Amino acid sequence: MVAQRIGKRINKFRIKRGLTQDALSKKLKVTRAVVSAWETGKAVPRLDKLKPLAKVLQCEVTDLL
Predict the structure, then answer these.
(1) Whole-number Å distance between alpha carbons of 9 and 12
(2) Distance of alpha carbon 60 from alpha carbon 34, whole angstroms
(3) What is the pTM of this model?
(4) What's the DSSP call for residue 2?
(5) Do residues 57 and 14 make contact, with C-beta atoms less than 8 angstroms apart?
(6) What is the SS3 string spanning 8-63?
(7) 18-54 burial, b for 16+ CB within 10 Å, e for fewer?
(8) Which end of the chain has the least Cβ crowding within 10 Å, N or C?
């Protein structure tokens, strides 16, 4: 599924940057549960969160998608 693929990419970049789910959630002003849902493929980031997410993870939006 697409959501699971995106989640794996978010997880990979988050770990590469040495961030915990909690730290990432605070930077994006979302809950840790939201980050967990993204990474497990239960949800995908809203459009308004993609650019800030990519910035924090130091990648391009297209790298996440």
Answers:
(1) 5
(2) 20
(3) 0.93
(4) H
(5) yes
(6) HHHHHHHHHCCCCHHHHHHHHCCCHHHHHHHHHCCCCCCHHHHHHHHHHCCCCHHH
(7) ebebeebbeebebeeebbbbbbebebbbeeebbeebb
(8) N
